[in-house]
Specification:
This protein is α+β, with helices and mostly antiparallel strands. Helices cover 23% and strands 31% of the residues. The protein is built from 12 helices and 36 strands. The strands form 6 sheets. A 15-stranded mixed sheet has the order 21-17-16-15-18-19-20-14-22-28-27-26-23-24-25, with helices on both faces. Helix 1 runs antiparallel to helix 12, helix 3 packs parallel to helix 4 and helix 6 packs parallel to helix 7. The radius of gyration is 32 Å and the shape is globular.
């Protein structure tokens, strides 16, 4: 019996050894890809050591193909090169000095420590990058228009990156886009942090109802300094107030977009010349090749280092007319939202943004005086508004956001986590966003609406009625177009949280502009804006068709198989149901059906028709994963214990062999003895 037991232990030990050393899609390692830069002459990668010991890199390599025997190139490292604990090393093809190659210890191709094969090249449009340890892939990065060439190494969409940026890892706990961040040289590069909540006193207000009076009152109270970043500042009255502040000893500092669209450039404004001659520090940003932002489209003001004004609106004549109106359709200004935020911490956050963006060392910022030597100053006057706009201040918490840093992540986070309502009022919409399978705010609105949340959208006349009708017809998002007042707003309400922003729903605004955003975590403040929103919506929404919502569907299925899905129609009547799964359609007269779901990403669209011909649609995007191999799960669970188990098994084996030998020896001695 003992022989059988020992043999079994030996087989078990060998099986553990086989599992531990066998080929796998990804192995654990302290060394990971940390940065990937596919652009310009400093193309290359950085590696980071997340462990506590130095590691020789000679056993590591980087390729842009999961097969090292392919025709793709490879990056290899000298046998003497080590990377210390917590250290980052950068490897580039060319020795050109740049921001990417000038922050960590950098090694250049062919200089002895790193070799890039001639075929190694990272495509600007998209590629996949693999870090090998020996023959096993231990890390993966996929970006742009590339696709994953080997399952299990990267999940979800490729990482989005644009020229002039590079990718930097912000989490070592996964292999998907959420673990990476788009780093922009010269940017603030502040990822979205939902746990960052700053105590603040917030005073909300509306355009056109307020006529900008809360802005005037806050500026009138300035004692030491005013810093303003804004896309367009053309209100003569605001400029007159800034001149008055200068005369009262207040420091005035402006950072203005140099070339706003369809608006006269600041270099032609003699009123700004008057401010400059009165002592204002005025800088213009943009309108040059290689500038950091497509447009500086933010609208914020920092007062005395303790107060921030943030608005969706530019400070132009109509918005800042100083007249209170009760009927927004009769006001001169746009529909927009704003807030006065009293918080030293938030003011410091925004001051760092202002300082970064106004830095002249990047070549896209110029001093106003240097480019307007021949401009004649103009006379300025200020008239304080006589109307009284009622305001209330709330003690609450806020979370900041920025474009291109974090605005998209922030908006998607709060929409994804909404459980009751999402209201949004938007000036613009990128055309591709009407495809709900495309990564965009509309994808999340459609999903939430399809499971019964109260999801509403109001667009300006910039978004055509045909698109409004299409959204109403193809989703459960209740969508309206508002003509008066003109919708310049970019606000979002998610349950009891409200977002005030300058961020349009366009790829440029999310990814390329400098935009400002604030999230206010307060039910009373949110309800303040929701009341105005509901008034806008009720005036402009036209109910169209049946209301259809999913009642039985999942965003993720663990494995392929047959699953039941169901919908509910708000209206009463008899209906037929057309279920379109990725282009394959089936008809039913029941509101439930069984679908055979295969691995991958899918979109299900249900069209419901009543006996009169009225229709309604609901769409839902979901993912079906591959069923996990139980052996893989077992291996992950026992992996930390493999080495101790092997040691124990070896000790048991040795002890058993010694015991067996000792018994045989005793048996021989006993057999030679006679009684």
């Amino acid at each position: 019996m003992r022989k059988i037991t020992v043999a079994a232990l030996v087989i078990l030990a060998l099986s553990f050894t086989t599992i531990a050393s066998g080929d796998s899609d990804a192995a654990s390692s302290d060394i990971m890809l940390f940065e990937v830069n596919p652009f310009t002459d400093d193309e290359g990668i950085s590696l980071h050591n997340y462990g506590s010991s130095s590691v020789y890199l000679s056993d590591y390599s980087v390729t842009d193909n999961p097969s090292k025997t392919s025709s793709e190139g490879i990056v290899t490292f000298d046998e003497s090169l080590t990377i210390g604990p917590g250290e980052t090393l950068t490897f580039v093809k060319d020795g050109t000095k740049s921001f990417f190659s000038d922050r960590y210890t950098t090694y250049v191709d062919g200089k002895g420590d790193v070799t890039f094969s001639s075929k190694f090249a990272l495509s600007n449009s998209g590629d996949d990058v693999y870090l090998f340890k020996g023959e096993i892939i231990i890390d993966t990065f996929v970006y742009g228009n590339a696709t994953v060439q080997k399952e299990g190494l990267w999940t979800g969409d490729p990482f989005a990156i644009k020229k002039g940026n590079f990718a930097i890892r912000i989490s070592a706990d996964g292999f998907d886009s959420s673990c990476w961040y788009k780093y922009m040289p010269g940017g603030t590069n502040i990822p979205f942090d939902p746990d960052l909540k700053i105590d603040a006193d917030v005073t909300p207000f509306l355009f056109p109802e307020s006529g900008g009076i809360p802005v005037y009152r806050a500026l009138e109270d300035a004692k030491e300094s005013v810093y303003i970043t804004i896309y367009t500042l053309s209100s003569a009255n605001v400029l007159g107030l800034l001149e008055q502040l200068l005369k009262n000893g207040v420091s005035v500092n402006l950072l203005l977009e140099a070339a706003p669209l369809d608006i006269a450039k600041p270099v032609t404004d003699g009123r700004l010349k008057t401010l400059a001659e009165a002592g204002a520090d005025i800088k213009l940003i943009g309108d040059v090749s290689g500038d950091r932002f497509d447009y500086v489209h933010a609208k914020y003001c920092i007062i005395d280092g303790s107060k921030v004004i943030i608005t969706s609106e530019n400070w132009v004549t109509n918005n800042m007319n100083g007249k209170v109106v009760t009927d927004p359709t009769q006001g001169a200004g746009n529909r927009g939202w704003g807030a006065i935020v009293e918080s030293i911490e938030y003011a410091s956050f925004m001051m760092n943004v202002f300082t970064n963006d106004s830095d002249m060392s990047y070549g896209d910022v110029v001093d106003f005086d240097e480019v307007t030597s021949g401009l004649k100053p103009a006379t300025l006057t200020y008239t304080s508004p006589t109307d009284t706009y009622p305001v209330k201040t709330y003690s609450t918490q806020i979370t900041p956001g920025l474009s291109p840093d974090s605005s998209y992540d922030a908006e998607v986070y709060y929409m994804s986590n909404a459980t009751d309502r999402i209201f949004s009022e938007q000036q613009s919409l990128t055309a591709s966003y009407t495809d709900y399978t495309v990564e965009s705010p509309m994808k999340y609105l459609s999903q939430k609406a399809s499971i019964g949340l109260d999801v509403r959208l109001i667009f300006s006349k910039n978004v055509s009625l045909s698109i409004v009708d299409e959204i109403n017809a193809t989703s459960q998002i209740k969508t309206a177009q508002m003509l008066a007042p003109y919708v310049h707003n970019k606000g979002i309400i998610c349950d009891d949280t409200v977002i005030i922003a300058s961020v349009n729903w366009t790829t440029t605004s999310f990814n390329n502009n400098r935009e400002s955003l604030i999230v206010i975590h307060d039910k009373d403040v949110t309800d303040y804006f929701a009341k105005a929103y509901e008034g806008d919506f009720d005036r402009n929404y036209k109910d169209s068709g049946l209301t259809v919502t999913f009642t039985e569907i999942q965003s993720t299925y663990d494995s392929p198989g047959e699953y039941t899905v169901a919908v509910e129609v708000k209206q009463s009547g008899s209906f037929t149901y057309s279920w379109d799964l990725d282009g394959t359609v089936k008809q039913t007269t029941a509101s439930r059906t069984i679908l055979d779901l295969q691995k991958g990403d899918h979109i299900l669209t249900v069209t419901v028709t009543d006996t009169s011909g009225s229709t309604g649609k609901a769409s839902y995007s979901f993912t079906v994963n591959e069923k996990e191999n139980p052996a893989d799960g077992l291996f992950e669970k026992i992996k930390p214990y493999i080495a101790p188990i092997l040691i124990i098994l070896f000790a048991i084996l040795v002890a058993a062999m010694r015991a067996s030998g000792s018994k045989k020896s005793k048996g021989k001695k006993s057999g030679g003895k006679k009684r």
